[in-house]
Amino acid sequence: MALPLTGSGGSPGLHPDVNSVSFERLLNWRDGSQYGVMDKTTSQGQGAAEVAQEVLSAVGKRKKEVLVAGLTPSLAVYLRMFFPRLFFTLMAARARKERKAKES
Protein backbone atom coordinates (compact mmCIF):
# COMPACT_ATOMS: atom_id res chain seq x y z
CA MET A 1 0.00 0.00 0.00
CA ALA A 2 1.48 3.31 -1.02
CA LEU A 3 0.85 6.34 1.16
CA PRO A 4 1.00 9.63 -0.74
CA LEU A 5 3.33 12.31 0.52
CA THR A 6 1.45 15.55 0.91
CA GLY A 7 2.05 19.08 2.06
CA SER A 8 5.43 19.61 3.70
CA GLY A 9 6.59 16.05 3.12
CA GLY A 10 4.34 14.14 5.46
CA SER A 11 1.04 12.41 5.11
CA PRO A 12 -1.75 12.29 7.67
CA GLY A 13 -0.49 10.68 10.85
CA LEU A 14 3.15 10.62 9.75
CA HIS A 15 5.85 12.82 11.15
CA PRO A 16 7.74 14.39 8.21
CA ASP A 17 11.13 13.50 9.69
CA VAL A 18 12.40 10.03 10.52
CA ASN A 19 15.68 10.05 12.41
CA SER A 20 16.24 13.63 11.23
CA VAL A 21 16.06 12.68 7.53
CA SER A 22 13.10 14.30 5.80
CA PHE A 23 11.02 12.22 3.41
CA GLU A 24 11.73 14.68 0.60
CA ARG A 25 15.46 14.42 1.17
CA LEU A 26 15.22 10.63 1.28
CA LEU A 27 13.29 10.55 -1.99
CA ASN A 28 15.68 12.97 -3.70
CA TRP A 29 18.93 11.48 -2.40
CA ARG A 30 20.06 9.47 -5.41
CA ASP A 31 23.80 9.22 -5.03
CA GLY A 32 26.78 10.45 -3.03
CA SER A 33 26.99 13.74 -4.91
CA GLN A 34 26.00 15.69 -1.81
CA TYR A 35 29.26 14.56 -0.22
CA GLY A 36 31.31 14.18 -3.39
CA VAL A 37 31.85 10.48 -2.68
CA MET A 38 30.13 7.33 -3.93
CA ASP A 39 31.46 4.22 -2.26
CA LYS A 40 30.95 0.66 -3.50
CA THR A 41 28.39 -0.23 -0.83
CA THR A 42 26.24 2.82 -1.54
CA SER A 43 26.35 2.32 -5.31
CA GLN A 44 25.14 -1.28 -4.93
CA GLY A 45 22.40 -0.43 -2.43
CA GLN A 46 18.71 0.11 -2.92
CA GLY A 47 17.52 3.38 -4.33
CA ALA A 48 16.01 5.98 -2.05
CA ALA A 49 12.59 5.67 -3.69
CA GLU A 50 12.58 1.89 -3.12
CA VAL A 51 13.51 2.30 0.54
CA ALA A 52 10.95 5.05 1.05
CA GLN A 53 8.26 2.86 -0.52
CA GLU A 54 9.13 -0.06 1.80
CA VAL A 55 9.11 2.22 4.85
CA LEU A 56 5.80 3.82 3.90
CA SER A 57 4.30 0.39 3.22
CA ALA A 58 5.39 -0.78 6.68
CA VAL A 59 3.90 2.36 8.26
CA GLY A 60 0.65 1.75 6.39
CA LYS A 61 0.57 -1.80 7.79
CA ARG A 62 1.33 -0.40 11.27
CA LYS A 63 4.45 -2.53 11.60
CA LYS A 64 6.58 -1.69 14.60
CA GLU A 65 9.81 -2.64 12.85
CA VAL A 66 10.92 -2.99 9.28
CA LEU A 67 14.19 -4.42 8.00
CA VAL A 68 15.05 -2.78 4.69
CA ALA A 69 18.05 -4.78 3.52
CA GLY A 70 19.17 -7.43 1.09
CA LEU A 71 19.66 -11.09 1.95
CA THR A 72 23.18 -10.90 3.39
CA PRO A 73 22.59 -7.90 5.71
CA SER A 74 19.26 -9.43 6.82
CA LEU A 75 21.00 -12.69 7.69
CA ALA A 76 23.62 -10.72 9.62
CA VAL A 77 20.89 -9.07 11.72
CA TYR A 78 19.38 -12.43 12.62
CA LEU A 79 22.80 -14.00 13.18
CA ARG A 80 23.60 -11.24 15.66
CA MET A 81 20.24 -11.66 17.36
CA PHE A 82 20.37 -15.44 17.79
CA PHE A 83 24.12 -16.19 17.76
CA PRO A 84 25.90 -13.02 18.96
CA ARG A 85 29.21 -14.74 19.80
CA LEU A 86 29.47 -16.21 16.29
CA PHE A 87 28.47 -12.87 14.74
CA PHE A 88 31.13 -10.88 16.61
CA THR A 89 33.77 -13.54 15.91
CA LEU A 90 33.02 -13.29 12.18
CA MET A 91 33.03 -9.47 12.26
CA ALA A 92 36.37 -9.40 14.11
CA ALA A 93 37.87 -11.77 11.52
CA ARG A 94 36.53 -9.59 8.72
CA ALA A 95 37.99 -6.44 10.32
CA ARG A 96 41.39 -8.13 10.69
CA LYS A 97 41.27 -9.23 7.04
CA GLU A 98 40.39 -5.71 5.83
CA ARG A 99 43.07 -4.12 8.02
CA LYS A 100 45.67 -6.56 6.67
CA ALA A 101 44.59 -5.81 3.08
CA LYS A 102 44.97 -2.05 3.69
CA GLU A 103 48.45 -2.52 5.14
CA SER A 104 49.60 -4.52 2.10
Main β-sheet description: 2 strands, antiparallel
Which structural class best describes the helix and strand composition? Answer: mainly alpha
In N-to-C order, the SSE pattern is EEHHHHH
How far the N terminus sits from the C terminus, by CA atoms, comes to 50 Å
Taken together, the total number of domains comes to 2
- How much helicity do the residues have? 40-55%
Low-confidence stretches: 1-20
* Number of DSSP helical runs: 5
* Lateral strand order in the biggest sheet: 1-2
Overall 3D form: flat
Describe this structure in words.
There is one protein chain. The chain is built from five helices and two strands, in the order E-E-H-H-H-H-H. The chain is mostly helical and 104 residues long. The chain folds into two domains: 1-67, no CATH class; 69-104. Helix 4 crosses helix 5. The protein starts with 16 loop residues before the first strand and ends with a helix. This is Dehydrogenase reductase SDR member 7B. It comes from Sphaerodactylus townsendi.
